[in-house]
Amino acid sequence: MTGLPQTNAERIVDLIDAGTACLERNERKQAADRYAEASGILFREAAQEQTATQKLALVKRAQQLLSTVHLLRGEPDHASGVRTSGASQSSGGTGSESEENEQTFETLQSNIKFDDVAGLADVKEALHLRLIYPLRHPEKLSRYGLQSGGGMLLYGPPGTGKTMIAKAVAGELSLPFFAIKPAEILSKFFGESTQKMAALFEHARSFSTGSVIFIDEIDSIGGARGEDGSSEASRRLVTQLLQELDGVQGQDEGLLFLAATNEPWLLDAALLRPGRFDEKCFVGLPDHEARVVLLGLQLKKCWIEENLTTAELAIETEGFSGADLVCLCERAKQIPFRDAVVNGIERPLQRKDFEAAIQIVKPSVTKASLQKYQEYSDG
Ligand SMILES: Nc1ncnc2c1ncn2[C@@H]1O[C@H](COP(=O)(O)OP(=O)(O)O)[C@@H](O)[C@H]1O
Ligand SMILES: [Mg+2]
Questions:
Q1: Superfamily covering domain 114-282
Q2: From 56's CA, which of 157, 163, 273, 340 has a CA 20 to 30 Å away?
Q3: 150 pLDDT above the threshold of 50
């Protein structure tokens, strides 16, 4: 302890660590108090944050923590985004503990298709070759002595569509698709997280048609196990995950893995060995053409001025991530909408609205962080 004032970020990390330590001792009430305090700080930080994407990320994190607090305190949680498992057989109960134990894992239903994802042609091609074609053409696969199965890691800056493209895989394949966030497993199932993970894999393997397991934000547990700061619980979960991945390589061909991370360099090297997440795929910022497509999708249903073209807007939004572009469009659309409601002025979306929005919504991915991905990709 240096006695220096703590930053909020440090305070949050400390509180979460303290909460997790309480959980490991099964002190739920104390854990809930720590998480609640961390969540409160996050909400306050979010309120002060200027960048919309950052604000959203902070709010999301704060809500996740709050869901955990509700769970620990046995309170109903209406805002929970947890979809690690679901009561697909129960009748929408209260989520009591005994009920949770009986839950089966819910598959992700997605109607997102590859065409909804702008750009990322290489990523789509890799996903086809590794996941989709092998399932659709098993006879051709074996003719070339190839095997289906194995894992792919999607990595790249936040907001570039990693989660979205994984959901598109679910939307394209008519296979059971299990989406998990390890951090949610850890917080939701406390001491039981390794058993939950094992149960999920067992369940996924039971489909003779094959199935897909998608581990989003894998860095939240996949961090190098030896390092300080990775909690005992998350270390155990990584070890469990490695065992499960190896099991698959040995026996079952039909189970596919997909994982996503913003921080691939944090991952335990063991996760990236052959037979595990051995294929890595960079998901980068949208290029000009992809921005045109994305802006077009965002403005499809909007009343816009005739001479406002997505090609021009795409030029002005170089460096924006997909999520930044969505945010920018929302912001711009709110201006004429507000004019119509408050001032009674009915007009289409105009260039000046974008100019105003672009003053506020800035690209969230820095050049320095892009450089870091480049260095990682170059090995
Ligand atoms: N390539 C893309 N095409 C279409 N929309 C995108 C794309 N990338 C990001 N988005 C938008 O941004 C949102 C956040 O993207 P997400 O997949 O969660 O990013 P990541 O998982 O890489 O952080 C998506 O829901 C979508 O609206
Ligand atoms: Mg994501």
A1: P-loop containing nucleotide triphosphate hydrolases (3.40.50.300)
A2: 340
A3: yes
Ligand located closest to 283 CA: 1
Q: Phi-psi bin for 257: left (phi > 0), alpha (psi -120 to 50), beta?
A: beta
Q: Which residue has the tokens 């009591």?
A: 96
pLDDT band at 379 (very low <50, low <70, confident <90, very high): confident
Which residue's alpha carbon is at the smallest distance from atom 6 of ligand 1?
322
For the full predicted model, state whether its pTM sits above 0.70. Answer: yes
What mean pLDDT, rounded, does the chain reach?
82
Q: Residue 158: CB within 6 Å of ligand 1?
A: yes
Question: Quick one: pLDDT at residue 334?
Answer: 96
Name the residue of 160, 317, 330, 364 whose CB sits within 8 Å of the most ligand 1 atoms, as the mutation to test its pocket.
Answer: 160
309 backbone φψ class: left, alpha, beta (φ>0; ψ -120 to 50): beta
Beta bridge partners of 349: 304
- How far is residue 37 CA from its own chain's centroid? 24
Q: How far, in Å, is the centroid of ligand 1 from the Cα of 164?
A: 5
Closest CA to 290 of 263, 270, 318: 318
The mean pLDDT of 351-364, rounded to a whole number, is 96
Whether residue 75 is predicted with pLDDT greater than 70 in this model: the reply is: no
281 C-beta closer than 6 A to ligand 1: no
CATH class held by domain 288-367: mainly alpha
Pick the closest to residue 214 from 261, 252, 253, 174 (CA basis): 261
Q: Which residues contact 121 (CB under 8 A, 6 or more apart)?
A: none
- Report how far ligand 2's centroid is from the alpha carbon of 161 (Å): 7
Q: Smallest Cα–Cα separation from 224: which of 234, 216, 213, 209?
A: 234
Going by alpha carbons, the residue nearest to atom 1 of ligand 1 is: 118
Please tell me the predicted confidence (pLDDT) of residue 227. 55
H helices of the chain, in order, are 8-24, 28-48, 52-73, 97-102, 121-127, 133-136, 138-143, 162-172, 182-189, 193-205, 219-222, 232-250, 288-299, 310-316, 322-338, 351-360, 367-378
- How many whole angstroms separate alpha carbon 38 and alpha carbon 14? 9
